[in-house]
Amino acid sequence: MDAYRELILMLAATIRVATPLVLASLAGLFSERSGLIDLGLEGKMLAAAFASAAVSAATGSAWLGLAAGVGAATALALIIAFACVTHRGNQVVAAMAVNIIVAGLAPTLALAWFDQGGQTPQLEGPGQRFLGIAWPGALFARRHPLPGLAYAELLSGHNLIVYFAAALVPAAAWVLYRTRFGLRLRAVGENPLAVDTAGISVNLLRYQASVISGALCGVAGTYLATAASAGFVRDMTAGKGYLALAALIFGKWRPYPTLAACLLFAFADAGATRLQGVSMPVIGVIPVQAIIALPYLLTILLLAGFVGEAVAPKAIGVPYSKEK
Amino acid sequence: MRAPARLPRWAEFGLLPLVNLCAALLVSGAVIRLIGESPWAALRLMVAGAFGAQDSIGYTLFYATDFVFTGLAVAVAFHAGLFNIGGEGQAYVGGLGVGLVCLACGSLSAWVVVPLGIAAGCVFGAAWALVPAWLQARRGSHIVITTIMANFIASALMTYLLVNVLIKPGQQSPETREFGPGAVMPAVDVVLGKMGIRFAPSPFNLASLLALAACLLVWVFIWRTRWGYALRVVGQNPRAAVFAGISPPRTILVAMLISGGLAGCLGVNELMGSQHRILLDFPGGAGFVGIAVALMGRNHPLGILAASLLFGALYQGGSELSFDMPHVNRDMVVMIQGLVILFCGALEGVFRAPLAVLLGARDGEEKT
Amino acid sequence: MEPESPEPKAPGGGHPPALELRGIDKRFGSVHANRAVSLSVARGSIHGLIGENGAGKSTLMNIVSGFHRADSGEIRVNGRVVEMGRPRDSIEAGIGMVHQHFMLVDRFTVLENVVLGAEGGRRLGDGLAAAREALGRMGGEYGLEVPLDAETGQLPVGMRQRVEILKVLHHGAQILILDEPTAVLTPSEADQLFRMLALLRDQGRTVILVTHKLREIMAATDRVTVMRQGAVVHETATGATSPRALAEHMVGRAVQLSVEKRPARPGRVLLDVRNLDVRDHLGVLRVKKATFALRAGEIVGIAGVSGNGQSELLEAVAGIRPRAGGEILLEGRDVAGAGPGPRGLGIAHVPEDRLRMGVVGQFSAEDNAILGYHARRPFSRRGFLDRGAIRRDCGRKMAEYDIRPQSPWLRITAFSGGNQQKLVMAREIDSKPLVLVVGQPTRGVDIGAIEFIHGRIVGLRDSGKAILIVSVELDEIMGLSDRILVMAGGEIVGEVPAAEATERALGLMMAGVGGGRRP
Fold first, then answer.
1. Residues of A121-141 as b/e, b for ≥16 C-beta within 10 angstroms?
2. B57, CA 20 to 30 Å: which among A124, A183, B338, C62?
3. Does any domain span residue A277?
4. What average pLDDT does chain C have?
């Protein structure tokens, strides 16, 4: 029973940890499927985290914060799209540039506006954060073993953004495979020339994909600052944008496998955190730094063992130009 | 679609980067204005802080040396078609190598410790680049992601070592004990002093000579040897490389090892030349500055020297600036860095067409 | 759009021309690709557009299909002026272009490829069902049956072309433009294509056939326009002209349609290929037990429709593709053993796709002139490049092979295709190989350079070397080779002395019919 309880709590933690990853990797899904390498997930999320925390602190409303977060991330996505789609710049360089800009700009603005050493103020007021929503009867269910506990912890009690992320996965699959937009998006990532000669604008599709990516990163970043924690802290994304990209590659750029990869990462992270300070049979206590390093090690392992290159969208990373 | 406008050589390699830099600085100025400070005042304070006094110049050159190493590292990898973002981690672990040699042999003569230290820095730095390099070469795993991951892992690893293993006993802060007397890169002011020239003390040390030597060696290697030729072929056209009998996987590996080794030399400047101990996060973002420096310097040692100087001034000027303008600090410099990468890297073509019109160069024609 | 009631056979018949171009002008930088081109294509006809590579035909058609925008000039469709700014304008005007390199998404099904751009609604489901029905009918009508749910990338090339044609028909094209359609077809598949085009014409549609093959123009078209160096130089009814006349208009002077050479005097065996198996990057076996020998002083040509294993064979012999079985022996030595590799042992290689792997686009001419030989004297000594020697050598190559402009420091892409190819040939021939393997020696090369290159190849043969040529141009193979091997389906299915080869016999072998090896 205890083990069952532990498991349920770990799964619940997994869901919470996975949410920003799912949002970010689906963001990456759309832009990468259109042929743009999306290394900027990190910067877009960080910008959203800052913007949402700042606006929420200033206005007292998490929803306004969300709007600000989505807006900030989308603006950055448009800058990257401008550089890479309109001006055919190097997509990797553009993304890294944005990541670094945000890493410096966010704490600078935070310091200037809030004078707290690069953070935003703690979000404590009512409505400043996205808090868990208890489903009807959850309190009652919790006391009842087995399904009750699962209901109380796994289904109920998450904040809105978590439910949004869960709904997003089938929605993304539907858009990608059952709509005209999705067909054209997939086409432009494989053979932009075919799309152009069919009379469809390659650049417009890629801009649209960038906007979707920005918006979803905005939600992810807002989650980090207003749901998972209570404010913005310097470098708070800590590489999650790259983890999300690795999950996307592992999931072969398809929504459901990507979800599975995100859950895998999150589960490993949640599990490792639970082992913190616990003495293991042979190794003794695992150093906290090893636990911190685990997601990054896992990413490298994933990329080493399961190469996504062969199935990446064929035209990815190559700026489109009409060759003579 | 028109062929991209071609600028005369001097404009392509001199004017255009300058214009891109100005764009980056203009945007930075706008941000400074946004947070309520005066960009002009900031600029004046920065220049004064960087070059105003002898020790300031020394600091500027000291920081610039760091950036030469990491900039060369990024540039060598770029020539092979690779984007090495792992300079930060490679410098960090390279410094571990330098530090270990210094801790072990610090009592020996400097003539022994310095070459050993340099070698260890290179080897450890190269080793940290090895796994991402191998994965890219043999598995096609995207080197950008693996090197970023390696940076995070390096940070965790070094924290663990400095807190638990290498820490000076009885001390709170995560640092090693001080190196012995032989494990020192002499400071320039000391050397000048011995020659009878007075120069204000600063961390500026002889590792800068190493940096200059590295510039020369990289130039010769890339443009004057057959291995550098092979490297450039792989970077421009891997299929042509295979055709020419060059092995892209092997070349990628070699390029990254050299790149990691160059980044590792940062430890010589910081640890042997200034800190004389291993401490937490001593690269302090230099690995990422290296990216900006390489892009601004067009991956050429001369350009890298100039760009490193600029960023050294930004760093030194920036830290002086935060005394008078408490809201402007290192984070601001990081942002400027990112803007330079944006304008000199991704947006580098934006001003080409307008410049070509201005200079009257006709589309598609090559002018020398 | 359904075809209008069939017109009498005489093209036009009172209607305005289906397509009319007036004064179309286009420059790309300093290249004047189209010079005030005027053209009139009658409704319900098959109109040929011929010219050698670089004559401007593809550019012109790209303008008509909206891919490029003309600098000046007017386009009229059925008498009405049309603004061709984007491909969409062209599609809406009823023009459908089947490109030489297919505009297909390999990973999509045939159905998905055909509907792309004309999906029939925001949600895919209904549009796809309607398209399926329409395509079924169309397929039967024109003999264009295709498996609608197959993955396009897996289909054979001829089938993929059908998908392209179905795509433009589905988008409602009344004017079809086909750009070099037979490069990937056997002669009999090409005949099938022309029959279908005739059917479309008889229904009132208009076809423009863009090609550089005289044979096709004579066989399939009603009228023909000749372009040379960006301008229209001749227009006539096909029945009123001849291949020689057309060729002369294409080139501007009297042309010899065959290569002059003395009979070969083959000597000892230089290259021995036995039971060679080669796989492609997906693991599919592309060359099956190929066996042949090359003798000193002879040119052996491999004929075949592109995609039948010739490229893989060439790459295996040149050493850039590993072999899955069999042996390749140069003067008795296995070339794959550890050591200098084929290039080091004396096999030089002019690759099929020059820009993709034969040169480095961003390098200068002199840096390209040492590609593959950069580690040798005199270009480098003890690891250091001797830039003076490199420049002098390049200058000498340029003078000897008449490569213009004679500036070794210029980027290779500043040179025309013909000059680039001459430099590549110079590089490989200068290395004094025993065996030279060449893929598509004159692809993208103007006629003057073609004659020069052919001459050099024959000269190399006469100096006692062995040459292996792969080309999709049957004329070139028949003209240059002393001995012809035919490949189909990855196997060498026929061998014929060139003097006895006929196009018909070769065509049959290329299609996998008849053949056999003559001793």
1. bebeeeebbbeeeeeeebeeb
2. B338
3. yes
4. 85
